[in-house]
Specification:
It is built from four helices and no strands. With 84 residues, it is an all-alpha fold. The chain is globular and about 35 Å long. It has a single domain (3-79), classed as ACP-like (Non-ribosomal Peptide Synthetase Peptidyl Carrier Protein, Chain A), CATH 1.10.1200.10.
Length: 84
């Protein structure tokens, strides 16, 4: 799966979880500071990433990731078998 496809899928997840962020989502946007995600939102994002990409995500790992780019990197590393 290419990076652009992963980005699109994660972007879709973010917009589903944070509908008010639809117009402000970009690759470097901070999920908490810029998009207003709560810790519960981050857990929901982790759950949806698990479901979408087919691997277990430790919610604590996602809480440490602050941007869509970081989430894309996280998924790419898991897909390559290099768990961060």
């Amino acid at each position: 799966m290419e990076r652009s496809e992963i980005y699109t899928k994660i972007n879709d997840i973010i917009v589903q979880v944070l509908p008010s962020a639809k117009k402000t989502v970009n690759s470097g946007a901070d999920l908490i500071a810029n998009l207003g995600a709560s810790s519960m939102d981050l857990v929901e994002i982790a759950f949806r990433i698990e479901k979408m990409f087919g691997f277990t995500v430790d919610a604590a790992s996602v809480i440490k990731l602050h941007s869509i780019d970081e989430l894309v990197d996280f998924v790419e590393q898991h897909k390559a078998g290099k768990t961060p």
